[in-house]
Specification:
Strand content: 25-35%
CATH topology: Rossmann fold
Number of helices: 2
Number of strands: 5
Order of helices and strands: EHEEEHE
Radius of gyration: 15 Å
Largest sheet: 5 strands, mixed
Number of domains: 1
CATH class: Alpha Beta
Mean pLDDT: 86
Distance between the termini: 44 Å
Helix content: 25-40%
CATH superfamily: Flavodoxin domain
Shape: globular
């Protein structure tokens, strides 16, 4: 299986990037080919985003808006997509 991943976060070493990296490593260990460049060759798309005010961030929102026409293309009808969302919080000992 070919998987394309997209990191939709400005923080390249933040929680979203770390979770996406762990996901990519797990997929690769199961034999998947993980790529960040080729949407048309991917069987599966994973978009990772932090959650801000109960919504995806501006990078992912803009990307979704600009590629909305792709959702209606027959060549992508049999593909799957997953949204991996991360949310910050207060540590129990910081309350």
């Amino acid at each position: 299986m070919k998987v394309m991943t997209i990191l939709g976060s400005y923080r390249r070493k933040g929680n979203t990037a770390r979770i996406l990296e762990m996901t990519e490593e797990g997929l690769a260990a199961q034999g998947a080919q993980v790529d960040r460049l080729n949407l048309s060759a991917a069987d599966l798309l994973i978009v990772a985003t932090p959650v801000y005010v109960n919504d995806v961030n501006d990078l992912v929102k803009t990307w979704i808006d600009r590629l909305a026409f792709v959702c209606h293309r027959p060549e992508f009808a049999d593909r799957s997509a997953y949204l991996l969302a991360t949310e910050g919080g207060i540590k129990p000992d910081e309350r």
